[in-house]
Every structure is written in C-alpha cells, then in structure tokens.
Design brief:
- The complex is a heterodimer.
- In chain A, strands 2, 4, 5, 6, 9, 10 and 11 form a 7-stranded mixed sheet that branches.
- The mean pLDDT of chain A is about 95.
- Chain A is built from no helices and 11 strands.
- The radius of gyration of chain A is 13 Å and the shape is globular.
- Chain A is mostly beta strands.
- The termini of chain A are far apart.
- By secondary structure, chain B is mostly beta strands.
- In chain B, strands 2, 4, 5, 9, 10 and 11 form a 6-stranded mixed sheet that branches. In chain B, strands 1-3-8-7-6 form a 5-stranded antiparallel sheet, with no helix packed on it.
- The radius of gyration of chain B is 14 Å and the shape is globular.
- The mean pLDDT of chain B is about 90.
- The chains are: A mainly beta, B mainly beta.
- The interface between A and B is medium-sized, with 25 and 22 residues.
Chain lengths: ~110, ~110
C-alpha cells in the first residue's frame, strides 16, 4: 500500500531533550515536506526537500532540522524542544510530475512540557 | 505575496442538506488547485484537483468549481452525511520550479443528525 509513515504518533517530552520524528514513504517520491498544524493557523510548512541531499526552509523553520540522506526518509529533528513547539506535525510527499498531489502521513502529536 | 483565503471559517449543517465552501486565491502564475478533506487528528486526503482549463470536477457527492478569471473556487457538498464532518482545505500551487504550495486555513464543517 502506498503510504507515508510517521513515528511516533504521540510523544510527550521535556524542554531541551533532543528528539527525532521519523518519516518514510514507499512511493519513490522526489518531494517531501514537514508541516505543523496549530488551531486557527492551518498547516504551515517547516522544511521541504526536492530530492536526496536537497533541503530548504519553509515558513517556520526555527528550532527544527531535517536531513535527506535517502530518498524514502525525511526525519524531523528538534535539537532543543521548547513548549511553543507543542503541535500536530505532518509529513507529506509527492512526485515531481504531480505537483500539489500530496500524500500525508497520519500525524505526530508532540507535547513539550 | 501568495495567499489563499477560505470562507466560512466554520459551518454547521443538518444531515442531508447541501453546502458550499469558498476559496479565493492570489497565487500567480496559477498551476493547480486542490481541495483536501482532513478528519480530526488525521492527515489531509485529496478530494479534487483542478488546472487552469477546468471549470468543474466531481468526486462523488463533492463538486469543485474553478473560475480562473476571478481566482475563486468552491466546493459543493450534496446530501451531506455525518462522515462529511471534517476540515476542508484549499491548496494552490504556482507554476515554476517551486514546490511550495499555499495552504488555506480550512473550513471546519460539522454535520448534525
């Protein structure tokens, strides 16, 4: 089944403790992206990658890092999480031939206390 | 600046009734527009995609229209069901090399029995 898999689904952590949210897709998509979703603000892009070893900042990149060493994986790294990063996070992917045709993961609900 | 505005912000209707959601955009040059349905806590799922030359497209009880001249789109839901309760997000992509789409903040639809 074609899908984007995020882990974990739920995570509670403490301020300053480094964490990684994994994202993997099995559709050989070139494009991958991370979004956060907060009440009333909609989906906001954190980082995106157009292919292996190519990443770029989205609208809200502060406090986040990403890497794209393999085509299928695009982990989101929070080096020193803070409470304002408490949010619902989504990973998405699409092919270069179908712009805007995103497949989203099921989401990761992160709480930083 | 590219923007996507959706209205209304929220909507409550009775089961079996029809409704129409609106999307106005300023994305230029226009490439395509997608409507996504997002169930609470889940990732968005694509309903329809429309390019510049398309005026209307249906997916079951969902019908999307596009007026590229006025830069407006609508999503009409016919004979609503309880399972239609969700957030509906309008996403617009521009032509060119950028993979960055512009997301609307969504319309929250609640269908009551």
């Amino acid at each position: 089944e074609a899908q984007v898999t995020q882990n974990p689904r739920y995570l509670i952590t403490v301020t300053g403790k480094k964490l990684t949210v994994t994202c993997s897709q099995n559709m050989n998509h070139e494009y991958m992206s991370w979004y956060r979703q907060d009440p009333g603000l909609g989906l906001r892009q954190i980082y995106y990658s157009m292919n292996v070893e190519v990443t770029d900042k989205g609208d809200v990149p502060e406090g986040y890092k990403v890497s794209r060493k393999e085509k299928r994986n695009f982990p989101l790294i929070l080096e020193s999480p803070s409470p304002n990063q408490t949010s619902l996070y989504f990973c998405a992917s699409s092919s270069s031939t179908e712009r805007n045709g995103y497949t989203f993961g099921s989401g990761t609900r992160l709480t930083v206390v | 600046k590219n923007q996507v505005e959706q209205s209304p912000q929220s909507l409550i209707i009775l089961e079996g009734k029809n409704c129409t959601l609106q999307c106005n955009y300023t994305v230029s040059p226009f490439s395509n527009l997608r409507w996504y349905k997002q169930d609470t806590g889940r990732g968005p799922v694509s309903l329809t995609i429309m390019t510049f030359s398309e005026n209307t497209k249906s997916n079951g009880r969902y019908t999307a229209t596009l007026d590229a001249d006025t830069k407006q789109s609508s999503l009409h839901i016919t004979a609503s069901q309880l399972s239609d309760s969700a957030s509906y997000i309008c996403v617009v992509s521009a032509q060119g090399g950028s993979y960055i789409p512009t997301f609307g903040r969504g319309t929250s639809l609640i269908v009551h029995p």
